[in-house]
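Below is how a single chain appears once it has passed through the pipeline. First comes the sequence as given, then the structure the pipeline wrote out for it. We keep one example in the README because the format questions we get most often are answered faster by looking than by reading.
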Amino acid sequence: MKRYGKAFKSGVAGLGLTLVMTACSSGAGNAPVSGTDAKSTTDSTKKVTLQLMFPKNSGSADPRAQWMHDNVEAFKKVEPNINFDVIDNTSGDNYLTTVTTRMAANDVPDIFQTWTLERLRPFAESNRVYDLTEFLNSTPELKSKFSPSALSATTFGNKTFAMPLTQDLEIIYYNKEVFQKFNLQTPQTYDELLNIIDVLKKNDIVPITLPNKEPWVGTILFMMLAERIGGMDVYQKTVIEKTGSWTDKPFVDAAAMMQDLVKRGAFEKNVNSLTRPESEIKLSQGKAGMYIGLTSSSNANLVQSMGDKVGFFNFPNVTGGKGSKDDYLQTPTNAYSVSAATKHPEEVKKFIKFMYSEERQLALAKLGNMLAYQFTAKPGDLPTLSEDLTKAGKSAKSSMYFWDLPLGVYMGKELNNTTQGFYMDVDPQQALAALQKKAEDQSKQAPGSK
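Resulting structure:
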């Protein structure tokens, strides 16, 4: 990766997989503990309960949420006097609302899944989350498992406020059997993608299933198109530096192309009410040929349901465009933070060490998740999809954060809501002008603005 904008330039930001021919290893100072053979290190007379909150998909299997439940059960065998109050009853945008509401009420769980970059910054600057800097410095064997660029996404003012968990890519999945049946190849150009859409549509197969009930999913296509048209500069200036305008031509053209795809029949008519489980099932059953998604949301589910029948490609080149199919959307996305008001910091740290041990992280990676944690694995240990995604991420010509993360909660949500309208009949120029007005208004209200 060569470029994330000024906020994120150095090194490979995670995708922490090293394939080796020997057995998996873990640092001597960070040897994982599991099962009943390990000895408890908690005072036998002290019983505590930690509140743990993380998202869980409703109405479908959620391998990553199950991994967290497995962590809890395995840890309780090691530390029987540490119990957990687990909250996992919401996901997606609803989870963001829950976290934000609890932050505002200063009712923060002891440990909770959060995000990186500008989504995390307000929590850190409001003194709601625990400063993990000393903890990481005192456990160098753990800190070394994260690249400096991954940690930079959770660090503000030289203080680290969250442990990175996933290093995600936003890509297009495809059903290999469907492509093979109709003699289709992964597209290298936008015209080739249009041909695939036409062939699948003609054969009564949904060309691209896109679960845009959570509007951030539909923004993936907008980001890809805008970059392929205008190159990395449109992202750099408007998203990172905040000096560009949402009314610039690449954004308007991207929105217009999205609406052309809608008219072409690329998506289901109910695209804005589709859920991720619905789209994943359609892809796995061959009722859809392609699916636009995020690796942390869908990889594990698709690996479980499709195995090696699922493949991926990055959005292809647009003729005359300045961007490249070798430019990827990838970001250290999810992380875990600790409440600044926790009454049990030592017990919390023990659980963090446990869930971030190489054994538990490898277990998560085997499910198909892309991790910020750097570990070793034998060939064949991980799903083929994960290995291929890792190689793609590391070979990226340039990379962008997912735009809603550096934009922050307010403008990120406004961007997502705006792009959701592009799948309907909203006027792109008017919608983008309204988005630009909101960006300017927010800029005027920012500290230090005139």
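Residues 176 and 309 are 5 Å apart (CA to CA).

See the next section for the split statistics.
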